[in-house]
Amino acid sequence: MTHSSAAISGLLCLVATTIAGETITIKGSDTMVRLGQRWAEEYMALNKTAVIQVTGGGTGAGVAALLNSGTDVCQASRDLSAREFELASKKRIAPLRITVALDAVAVYLHKANPVESLSLGQLRGIYTGAITSWRDLGGPDHRIVLYSRENSSGTYVLFREVVLKNHDYAPEAQTLPGTAAVINAVAHDRYGIGYGGIAWESNVKHAMVKPTDTSAAVSPTDANVSRGEYPIARKLYWFTNGEPTGELARLRDFVLSDTGQQIAAHAGYFPLLTNVVEKTEMK
């Protein structure tokens, strides 16, 4: 673990004052930052000497911190890449991947937009620039305004892999620094479209998504995600340097317990199935 000698500034940060002990630091995915905060709040309420700092910055920032021994836990909305595992090995870091919750990547539309569903093919056309008008999708005769995340975001990477099939984003896509910024932009732009974690409260609507152009539209609900029917779902991870010990091990066990998974569900994420909770995977 790292010790709490350094201040962390400019953060979405949760800090408890304490007189002693080690600070557990959690850094990474913006999608997961509020979930990490909820887990930390509940854990510290039950363990009065525990101190946990939770910060965002994106999955890429969390991975960089893990590889530089700058955090105890990297919260990640994607798996580490082969290159990141290679870098970890060179730095004698042994990333342990722990699946901690499930998430759906929602497609955000303005509430006044009459479009209710989009296929993966249509989303790919929209975000690669092949489809530029809502008219082609049953909406108004107006240019589509694209909002996206920065390339350090795990959500950006997953959306590019699953939806864009690794094609490049259209240059017109406006990159914004966080899910909240994407939602805010779409909420104020009736011709906008964005994407991000399902758990974020918003003033937008979630489009249903069709796996193919001819299949039924699927809403990003708990049941649809658990059954694997919603096509843009994912696991959310914690990465630690090797098997956690001490306070960090107890925090990990709390997160994977029924209580921890209920906290995830109440925060708007999806709890793990029992057989997934029992797994931790070394890669």
Provide an overview of this structure.
It is a single chain. The chain has 283 residues and is α/β, with parallel strands linked by helices. The protein is 31% helix and 23% strand. It has ten helices and twelve strands. The strands form two sheets. Strands 1, 2, 3, 4, 6, 7, 8, 9, 11 and 12 form a ten-stranded mixed β-sheet that branches. A two-stranded parallel sheet has the order 5-10. Helix 8 crosses helix 9.
Termini distance?
Answer: 20 Å
List segments where confidence is low: pLDDT < 50 over at least 5 consecutive residues. 2-20
Mean pLDDT: 89
Q: Work out the radius of gyration.
A: 19 Å
What's the β-strand tally?
12
Beta percentage is 15-25%
- One letter per element, helices H and strands E, the order comes to EHEHEHEEHEHEHEEEHEHHHE
How many helices? The count is 10
Strand count, sense and barrel status of the largest sheet are: 10 strands, mixed
Approximate shape: globular
Helix content bin = 25-40%
Structural class computed from helices and strand pairing: alpha/beta
